Amino acid sequence: MPEIEGEPVLVVGLGNPGPRYVGNRHNAGFLVLDELAARIGGKFKAHKANAEVLEGRLAGRRVALAKPRSFMNVSGGPVVGTARFFKVTPDRMIVVHDELDIPYGSVRLKLGGGENGHNGLRSITKSLGTKDYYRIRFGVGRPPGRMDPADFVLRDFSPTERKEIAFVIDRCADAVETLLSGGLEAAQNTFHVD
């Protein structure tokens, strides 16, 4: 990840706004951003780009944390608006999101690639005009039986999953910091071990 003196990295967490969605699997990105905010020691504030934003330092780098205030499927507008405000190019953007194709508790990182049916990523890619941004993928696993994946991600984490969730959130936050400090390969070598 290129380091440009004085310019921040934008770290975006994906989720849906409002109390109804707080514990949903689809809000994994928001949960990780809340942990990063705690590490910075600050609070999110409303921003004109239709996002909650917090500026600070992580892993020795200047960062802007952002949680879009729009619904997941139209998060591209707030993400692009926030990126423009901070003059951040896609190669200095990290998006933290839930991922169905990864077992619960696993964390994966990548640069670019497909959206795997994730409407939040699809909206961001369309708004940015590129797929070339970093992703921290919070594994939520596949739905049981024939449950619709859209219903599954809009349900709260199960009681069993909640027992482990603090650990998974912590691992995802650590992955963001490792990506910031050591780059993609170092972060993949650290987190792609389970």
UniProtKB/TrEMBL annotation:
Transmembrane segments: none annotated. CDD domains: PTH. The record marks N16 as: Discriminates between blocked and unblocked aminoacyl-tRNA. TRNA binds at Y21, F71, N73, N119. The keyword tRNA-binding applies. Monomer. HAMAP family: Pept_tRNA_hydro_bact. This is Peptidyl-tRNA hydrolase.
